[in-house]
Design brief:
By secondary structure, the protein is an alpha/beta fold. The protein is about 40% helix and about 20% strand. The protein binds adenosine-5'-triphosphate and magnesium ion.
Length: about 400
């Protein structure tokens, strides 16, 4: 096959095919889904060097490199982190001709074919005007590949390698096994929420999980200098950065929490410190939500994980806000959360030893089953509005991108 060079025929370069998820979506929704996904994918591929042409046809997104400096490996990995995509393949397009397809498969998948012991060819014909049926294409290409790589056995039931051939409108595409995509819904389809991001293991995972359902996030972090260090703040910003390949660019609202914590210590019984502190966090997160037009709050809380995560304690923190509080980790075990943290790449940063403001003034015997009226009463010793107003005023806003 003649070698294609850029400028002559960019359409025949190795490219990326992405299959869409949530196929139950129909009609108008379907369009909104695809439009959003295309915009998200384009934005993401802009950071992969070079220029990619990104478009959708027949429930598939195509990303075609348009210049020499496109990093196809980086682009492939980027596609795997875009929510709304269920599978991703690097593919080689060729002319819609049976011998062009065969030659492309032989060349493009040569190493993979040599490494495999058994294989089969699976052809799909989206372009019904192509003169062979899917079965005929599979048999034709399979037969000749078998001749070219005689060590292979054909195994139609449980092959080690499946050679995929897709005959589509513009071209035929040859690829090996597809890799799993991120699944979920495109960011932006699920509305907007404010996520409370600490430096721990849980809240990056809860943020990831809501982003996966298409929620665009705005982050809020509370920090208490000098009780918490500059490194603790940097750690949270690093976590936000690690989340951007999944969540898109993020804005982190960093809210000073020292005065509030000191006031709580001065005026409230020790066993209520954490409960009341959490009420302040929820109130201020809600104020950020109102400011940015978000419709929910997200936390990394998990039932029973710590004293402040009993049902009564959750009720106590929810008591102060009107927006729904989304807690995607509520029913998960720590091991499950850790597994996700490792997979998405936040775990190693989360376990760095810098302290969170939650461990400042931790009560020795926290109240685990608080009565809501009592919490309200104890809190009434504080000038809640003034404390919040001062903290909000000093909020620092940091933008984080990939
Ligand atoms: P994480 O691992 O997310 O820190 P955790 O198990 O340590 O969670 P807590 O410290 O009780 O639990 O915090 C519960 C939730 O409250 C966190 O998941 C996070 O959403 C929020 N949160 C805690 N500390 C902060 C903070 N300093 N800034 C913003 N949100 C916070
Ligand atoms: Mg924590």
């Amino acid at each position: 096959m003649k070698k294609m060079t850029f400028g002559k025929d960019t359409a025949m370069q190795e490219m990326i095919l992405c299959k869409l998820g949530e196929l139950v979506l129909k009609g108008l929704n379907r369009h909104a889904f695809e439009d959003r996904l295309l915009a998200n994918l384009r934005r993401r591929l802009n950071a992969c060097g070079g220029k990619f042409r990104v478009y959708s046809r027949q429930s598939t997104l195509y990303a075609e490199p348009q210049s020499e400096n496109c990093d196809i490996e980086a682009a492939f990995n980027a596609c795997r982190q875009v929510f709304g995509i269920t599978s991703v393949s690097r593919a080689k397009p060729c002319e819609k001709d049976k011998d062009a397809i065969l030659e492309t498969a032989k060349e493009y998948l040569a190493d993979t074919l040599r490494a495999a012991k058994s294989f089969k060819v699976e052809a799909k014909r989206a372009d019904k005007s192509f003169p062979m049926t899917s079965i005929e294409i599979s048999q034709y290409v399979g037969g000749y590949l078998h001749d070219a790589f005689p060590h292979l056995t054909v195994d139609v039931h449980n092959p080690e390698l499946i050679v995929h051939i897709e005959i589509r409108d513009a071209a035929a595409y040859v690829h090996g096994p597809a890799s799993a995509g991120a699944g979920g819904l495109p960011i932006g389809m699920g509305g907007r929420a404010v996520s409370l991001l600490s430096g721990g293991i849980d809240s990056p995972v809860s943020s990831y999980m809501m982003a996966k359902r298409g929620v665009s996030l705005e982050m809020v972090h509370f920090f208490s200098p000098p009780y918490t260090s500059e490194q603790a703040k940097e750690k949270v910003l690093s976590l936000a950065k690690l989340l951007t390949p999944w969540c898109g660019r993020l804005t982190v609202h960093i809210v000073p929490f020292t005065e509030i914590q000191e006031e709580i210590r001065r005026s409230c019984p020790e066993e209520y410190f954490t409960l009341i502190m959490r009420r302040f966090m929820m109130r201020m997160a809600e104020l950020v939500a109102v400011r940015v037009g978000a419709k929910a709050l997200v936390t990394g809380e998990c039932l029973g994980q710590v004293a402040s995560q009993t049902m009564e304690a959750l009720r106590s923190s929810e008591d102060v806000c009107a927006l729904p509080v989304l807690r995607p980790l509520i029913g998960m075990d720590k091991e499950e959360i850790v597994r996700i943290a490792r997979r998405i790449g936040t775990f190693d940063t989360s376990i760095l030893p810098y302290e969170d403001c939650c461990i400042v003034f931790t009560p020795r015997h926290p109240k685990t089953h608080p009565v809501i009226e009592e919490v309200r009463e104890i809190e009434a010793a504080l000038d809640v509005d003034a404390l919040i107003a001062r903290a909000m005023e000093q909020t620092e806003i940091v933008k984080v991108s990939y």
